[in-house]
Amino acid sequence: LSKALTGWQIDDDNPDQTFGYFNKSRWFSGNKTVLGQTGDYEHRDAVDVVLKHPSHPQFLMRKLWAEFIPTEPDRATLKELVAVYKKSRFRLKPVLRKILTHPDMLDSVKEPNMIKPPVVFAVGLMRSLGLTITDDTLYNSLNEMGQLPYFPPTVAGWEGGTAWLNTNTALARFALVNELLDKAYEKSDNTDDDPDDVVEETAAQAYKRAHEAVGRPWVARGTRSALMYYANNAPVKRKSDRVARQRVLRAFMLGGPDAQVM
Questions:
Q1: What mean pLDDT, rounded, does the chain reach?
Q2: pLDDT in tens, 106-147
Q3: Which of these, 9, 49, 57, 259, has the minimum number of CB atoms within 10 Å of its CB?
Q4: What is the arithmetic mean of pLDDT over 176-197?
């Protein structure tokens, strides 16, 4: 299939042109076997072979569905999506409308269950903290988290899902949280580059202030209990202790397990 798709070039005079242009002199001429069928296929011929394969509708419907809903579609839903796809003569817009308006789209509203890709995670952090891009922090962090835009590991793109999280990439995510928190403090009027100190602040008040400061993200009930336990038991006699408590609360709200899903 890759050989059949050769010959396409970017138009240097108009690099933003979506499809570039086809240069037959750079096309691999000769027989190729695609899905068990052999022929001297050009790109359109090869696409036709793929579209005629009996498994293609179901395969594509599952792939599209997984981009929006992490749980597998049930048999009836998959059958309905395939029917819409075929009836529209392989147009994607009707299928996407069906997926985006499906009841399963709302199943995770109260408890998100789709892992955020690094780009989504990073952009969400920036928005939560009211930051803009001013240096190469995001570039370096996205590289460490495994999703540098325009540089996928293969032509298939990124695997996604739980593959986003491993020992190294999870640490990179939390490191970005701390780095952006520092930038947010630097941006504020606070000369100490830290959260403001509130002397008589209770644990509940500290939690509420931290939550509001980072954009009120979704926090699971169990996570909230754990953070409140920490807030109640953290030392608060000195200013540095109180500031540390506020930093920790904000960091875990932005970089803890709940922050990794949407």
A1: 93
A2: 888 888 999 999 999 999 999 999 999 999 999 999 999 999
A3: 9
A4: 80
In the chain, alpha helices (H): 43-52, 56-66, 75-87, 93-100, 118-129, 137-145, 167-187, 203-213, 221-233, 239-255
Q: Exposed (0-12), middle (13-18) or buried (19+): which is 179, by Cβ within 10 Å?
A: middle
For residues 204 and 176, the answer to whether their CB atoms sit within 8 Å is no
Contacts of 79 (CB under 8 A, 6+ apart): none
Indicate if the pLDDT at residue 213 is higher than 70: yes
Whether the full predicted model's pTM is greater than 0.70, yes or no, is yes
Q: Which tokens belong to 206?
A: 């500290």
Spatial separation of the C-alpha atoms in residues 157 and 139, rounded to whole Å: 18
As a whole-number percent, the residues of the chain with pLDDT over 70 amount to 98
SS3 (DSSP) at 37: strand
43 closest CA partner among 11, 12, 4: 4
Helices 167-187 and 118-129, packing angle to 10 deg: 20
Percentage of the residues of the chain whose pLDDT score is greater than 90: 82
Q: What is the pLDDT of residue 194?
A: 66
Q: Which letter, b or e, does each residue of 33-55 get, where b requires 16 or more Cβ atoms within 10 Å of its Cβ? A: ebeeeeeebbeeebeebeeeeee
Cα–Cα distance measured from residue 247 to residue 13, given in angstroms and rounded to the nearest whole number: 50
Q: Is residue 258 a contact partner of residue 108, using CB atoms and an 8 Å limit?
A: no
